[in-house]
Design a protein that fits this description.
- It is a single chain.
- This protein is an alpha+beta fold.
- It has six domains: 130 residues, HPT domain (Four Helix Bundle (Hemerythrin (Met), subunit A), Up-down Bundle); 60 residues, no CATH class; 49 residues; 54 residues, Helix Hairpins (Orthogonal Bundle), CATH 1.10.287; 182 residues, Heat Shock Protein 90, CATH 3.30.565; 134 residues, OB fold (Dihydrolipoamide Acetyltransferase, E2P) (Beta Barrel).
- Helix content is 51%, strand content 18%.
- The protein has a six-stranded mixed beta sheet with strand order 10-14-15-13-12-11. Strands 2-4-5-7-6 form a five-stranded mixed beta sheet.
- The longest helix is centred in the first third of the chain and has 42 residues.
- The two termini are 63 Å apart.
- The C terminus is likely disordered.
Length: 658
Amino acid sequence: MNIDDEIKQDFLVEAGELFDLLNDQLAELNDNPQDEELLNAIFRAFHTIKGGAGFLELSAMVEVCHRAEDLFDLLRKDKIKVDSSLIDVIFQVLDVVGDMFENIHDDEPLQDADISLLNKLDSYLLADKSKQTAAAIKADEFDSKDINNEANVMPESDLITDDDFDNLLDELHGEGKHKNISVNSLSNAIATKDNDSDLISDDEFENLLDDIHGKNKGPGTSDSVKLVQDNNIENLPVSAIVAEKKTSNKRKSLKKDNSKKKDSRKIETSVRVDTERLDDIMNLVGELVLVRNRLSMLKQDMKQDHVSDAITTLELITTDLQASVMKTRMQPIKKVFGRFPRLIRELAKKLKKDIILDLLGEETNLDKSLVEALADPLIHLVRNSADHGIESPEERYASGKARQGTITLSAKQEGDQILLTVSDDGKGMNPDVFRNKAVEAGMISEDAANNMSDRDAFNLIFAPGFSTKSEVSDVSGRGVGMDVVKTRINELNGSISIDSTPGEGSVITINLPLTLAILPTLMIKLHTYQFALPLNNVYEAFNMKPDKINIVDNQEVIRVRGETLPLFFLYPWLVNNKDFDRSKIEQKVIVVQMGSLRFCLVVDQIVGQEEVVIKPLGTMLNSTAGFTGATITGDGNIALVLDMPSLMNKYTENRAVY
């Protein structure tokens, strides 16, 4: 394909937006098959994509979109009906078109749609053409019989005389202004044609009209039109009045349709901005935030009121600018949620279950990077809810439930956090099953399993290779997926937890920061070094005396609000200094939460909260475990940003006491 890159990108963006909407619209059509607006919208989407593809000479895409367009033209004209099999076919079309978009994006040649899919589409179109042909033949037969009967009756009957016919023409054209045509001559002409088994031709009919009205004075001519426009209807033959009336109505109808189109146009309120430009702006705002932090610290040492006021104003402006730029990166989570109605529909059919999907909070906005990163983890969770959670209709009925199960996908903003939940009203989870499976797999000892809380037992599902399914299917049970979900959520500085009640259902909760560009952190110190701990991992902080530490199974622990939590000294992990003193009279302790897991970290000093801009560590240090990046602190120093999941994995393998 020799396509100008800018034109290609415009097509991918504009047609891609229509393509994304089609997934939502088809899922909605499945529930509302009679929705005319929806049918028209889908028809227009395929028509627009086809037009753009035609301009770019993408014949393979044109071919499949053209068939889909014709199919929806039949649907909106009520010539065929929406059913489950038709929806399946259109979803297959979307899969094919989606693959073609990827080919275009990667500058790869398009592959023609599978012939079996094209045949399925053609079967709907050919079926309608067959109906039209049959109807036309039937109508022709009826018309022929009708004409023959009329022609045979006219020569034999004496319903109107020549004088009567002349008087009728006088009334239409004025006395003496019509040609000398008799009704019998007209009847004989028709009868003769009928006897010759040949209907009157168009030319002969036109000549007949000329004989009646005069040359080129028949219905629909310019003179007739003028008379109608002048409201001089009494001087027109009836046939001309009818013909012009139809033309006039058609014009009015067309004008009315154009008026509707004009009124329905919405003023464009959005501007498409390249993501790279947003990233550049975001980086600049990030630098501005760092300067603000720096000046805020310097302000404390400045006594001049006017300098302090100026810095305060800068803080306000920077904060507002930061919020505005953040909004430009925000997208509704509906872009992710939109793919799930189809997924549930296909899973329900494959699993032979009756499942509906509830979507809540689709307009919740979050950072574009999070929208793109959440798709795969949520798919894993929804598939598991459908396979593991929702029972078969027979099981649900036997247990007193409705035969139809429900999976709910919801999103809402809580402060600077996004709360996502995937819940179902299925059979729930039994923590003992998780304990037993973990013991059988050699993941934990039997004693450890017996002492494990229900919350910890549920979290075993995130362990690599863990599955409660005894049979392997193409939906779940392969021992992969949930560990990938947790890893991905952790990479996004989020947390995930599970709550379940046997017989009632399960709820999986995900907490994520509103954005990844600027991260709220708790700044801590070890010796002279500063580190930034993501604030969403911080549960609480307190002072601790050394005599409060106990040892259980070779692990230091401490009691916090009635709960025994593991205790780790962060200093030996991150600072290469043998002068570390554990015998301080009082230690600073931070309770860290990752999902449902809590533990305590001992640090030298808690500096305070600070928003930081994360900078990558670079190629050589990018794979360093325990760190997600670096930032410049308010005092101008460099601080490493901690990645708690990888840090704990690295330093707690042997659960050693430091």
